[in-house]
Design goal:
three-stranded antiparallel beta sheet, single chain, Arc Repressor Mutant, subunit A
Length: 122
């Protein structure tokens, strides 16, 4: 109960809990350009990754489910064969894109220098 009260009273803690996860910010960022299917999201996450060259289906599914539960994305299941599912930003998710853009801009300004990258790695 104390934890729930803290999250209600501290927007920063609630925000941190909502976006915690390795891929959530990148998924929302990729969806800014329109709806994507599972495979498109997965391949988008694999482009530009420095570390692992693979995201497991279980991890991606968990991140998508969490983003859906938080109200940032919507899952649309088409009743067709073969199965077709699309993910798109909700109004709440679209309002989050400028926040990610600000984080991206900050990163470009402050993390692109070799000294800053070395500091971040420590």
């Amino acid at each position: 109960m104390a934890k729930a009260k803290m999250l209600r009273s501290c927007p920063v803690a609630a925000f941190q809990k909502m976006i915690s996860g390795k891929y959530k910010l990148r998924i929302v960022w990729d969806l800014k350009d329109g709806p994507r299917r599972y495979g498109e999201i997965r391949s988008g996450l694999l482009r530009g990754t420095d570390g692992s060259s693979e995201i497991t289906p279980r991890v991606l599914s968990r991140e998508l489910k969490a983003l859906t539960l938080s109200g940032l994305i919507d899952r649309k299941d088409y009743a067709v064969v073969p199965p077709k599912v699309e993910y798109r930003l909700t109004r709440k998710g679209k309002s989050f894109v400028p926040v990610i853009a600000a984080i991206r801009d900050w990163g470009e300004r402050h993390l692109s220098e070799p000294a800053a990258l070395a500091e971040a790695a420590e």
